[in-house]
C-alpha cells in the first residue's frame, strides 16, 4: 500500500490534500481520482467552472502521476474515464 494525494486545482488556486489516501497501486489512485472527479462534477458547477477544475495525483514523494479533469466526468461520462497522461508541468 502507498499513500497518494489528490490536490484540486481551480485556475490558479490549489487546494492541497494534506492527508492523502492509502491505496494498493497507481491504478487504484487513478480510479479514486475518477470517483472524486465524478463527485465534483455532480456539484452545482457551471460548465465553464467544471472545465477549470482538475484533480492532480501525487505520490508521497511529491511526484505528479497524472491529472484528471473534472469536466470529463460530467453526468454523461462513466466514472472510469481514463486519466490523462503524466503532467509535464513542474509543481
Descriptive report:
The chain is of the alpha+beta class and 91 residues long. The chain has one domain (2-73). It has two helices and five strands, in the order βββααββ. Strands 1, 2, 3, 4 and 5 form a five-stranded antiparallel β-sheet that branches. A hairpin with a 4-residue loop joins strand 4 (53-59) and strand 5 (64-69).
Short description, anyone?
By secondary structure, the chain is an alpha+beta fold.
List keywords for this structure.
91 residues, alpha+beta, 5-stranded antiparallel β-sheet, 2 helices, globular, disordered C terminus
How far the N terminus sits from the C terminus, by CA atoms, comes to: 24 Å
Structural class: alpha+beta
For the biggest sheet, the summary is:
5 strands, antiparallel
Determine the oligomeric state from the structure.
single chain
Amino acid at each position: 500500500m502507498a499513500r497518494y494525494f489528490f490536490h484540486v486545482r481551480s485556475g490558479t488556486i490549489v487546494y492541497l490534500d494534506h492527508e492523502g489516501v492509502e491505496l494498493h497501486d497507481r491504478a487504484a489512485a487513478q480510479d479514486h481520482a475518477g470517483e472524486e472527479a465524478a463527485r465534483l462534477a455532480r456539484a452545482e458547477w457551471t460548465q465553464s467552472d467544471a472545465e477549470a477544475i482538475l484533480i492532480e495525483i501525487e505520490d508521497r514523494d511529491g511526484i505528479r502521476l497524472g491529472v484528471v479533469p473534472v469536466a470529463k466526468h460530467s453526468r454523461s461520462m462513466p466514472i472510469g474515464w481514463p486519466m490523462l497522461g503524466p503532467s509535464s508541468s513542474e509543481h
